[in-house]
Amino acid sequence: MRRIVLVTVFASLLLVGAISNQSFGATGHSYVLEWGEFGFAYDGKFFKPQNLATDDEQNIYVTDSGNARVQKFTSDGEFLLSWGTNGKEDGQFLFPVGIATFENFVYVVDEKQSTVQKFDSDGNFILKWGELGSKSGEFLSPKGIEVDSNGIVYVVDTKNHRIQQFTADGEFISSFGKYGFVDGGLKTPVDIAISGNFIYVSDPGNNKIEKYTSDGIFLKTFDYNFAGKSITPGGLVTDPDGNIYLVDSINQRILKIDSEGNTMTVWGTLGNGKGKFLQPTDLVLDNLGYIFVLDSAYSKIQKFQTPFVLKIQEALAAEQAKKLEELAYSEESSEQEAESSEEISVHEEPVVLDTIKPTLILPGNIVIEATGALTTVDVGEATATDDNGIQLVVNNSPRMFPLGSSTVVWTAIDNAGNSAFATQQINVVDTTPPSISLVSDIVAEAITPFNNIIELQSPEAHDIMGAISITNDAPEFFSIGETIVTWIATDESGNTVSTEHKVTIIDTISPILQIPEDIIVEATSSDQNEVQLGEPTATDNGEIASIINDAPEFFALGDTTVIWTASDSSGNISTGNQLVTVTDTTAPEISQLEDIILEATSV
């Protein structure tokens, strides 16, 4: 929430005494308009909205918690913009709750992320701080937030039972508050309001409001009955006079009390009409004096005038009852009227005092399989009984439920106005795995033995919830041979389905063989010539298994063809012929004979 100091003209109105505090009553808070309805992702529709804030231009900010976003409106409910999606990154939310503005900045508390995020007024992310824990600057299910006139940020650290103070940039300053049930103790604080030198903290777990000094020193507890009933306070805000407005969700009403806890004004009753509520959670006062009340169960915001806007004359007892009827405010019971000291004209008729709540019997909790992003659920019928008769049995069930656990609040009202509440859990589960298409096997020619890159075609997958992640176990590179690739489709609920296909890398290409050149050698023998053939080389897209030849050990004179054969690991072969020629160009050697001299024996 964000407390806005009302403009001078209204403060002056009070100073000159144009309207006395004692004359305000519920008649000073007339219904103006309303907007909002249940829905997902659409502008102006809400799912589990939690808190409100306003800025100096009277714009209204709503934490649309179930839709993980913030929506911004004019003070007349005209949609301006929204920001945020579900997630944990900067600018995303898991469950935004408390919201406050200061100057041109918007601060949003995320209960499930245990963080505070800071945006400009157009929703642009600036910074965030906080994490889960109990140390200074850490949070455990934080909820409310407020910024004082000096820009100091106060965060209600709910499950750590304390209030933490920070600079505008998230630097921790100090904290106050402690766990307890007695005065000064906090059980489940949810919101904070600041007025001058005083700080007020609502603690529905203890059914009270705690008052502190601006330094966090405990002063007083407001834990008594207000207008005849104990309170379960939620959102609260202060006005320029230091009075406090607060929502009392259990009793479907808005209270105005002074700084000492005295009841000044009460309005609201159970229902879905003007000035009626089912589950009011927060309220905010803008700088023109209008007050806005958020009803989370009905996903709507109601706008009311306050005495700072409505220049009424001194309220006349005779006209007050008529005004209350016109503005749809319920009459207080006789006991409430006596304790609140408000003079409200009511229709007088003898009644038998009935303070016993009706008996409310609910249908059982429901677990149902999801049929889509939203699932239609028949929540059943509740029964209520009371000696004085039943006036109304209602619930806040939406038409369709999202995945997960939702709480339906049932309310029974008897004819004396006593109410009973009970909750029913609706669990929409998703146990249905997604569907996945088959993927064709792939056969590809090898480029290298081991580092083949294959472009895989992803299968198609479908799920009733929409979002699916698809992964596979394929290696970065494929080797020659068969590889089984498994594809797994996983939906948001963790259900999986898989399919397999085969990637086969083949090698049908023969090696490239480079044989030595043909050889001509001089014979050294007629048939026992040794020849050095040289070294062949071979390359392949696979692996070379062997290079062999059929050369004889010794070569004879003449031509001999040597056949070289290269084989790869896939059995592909290449051959080449090398001609080996053994020649004889050497003349034979003849020994020199000695000259012969003979004596003639004849002429």
Automatic annotation (TrEMBL):
Pfam families: DUF5128, HYR, NHL
Keyword Cytoplasm found: no
Keywords: Repeat
GO MF, one example: zinc ion binding
Domain HYR: 353-430, 506-584
Protein name per the record: HYR domain-containing protein
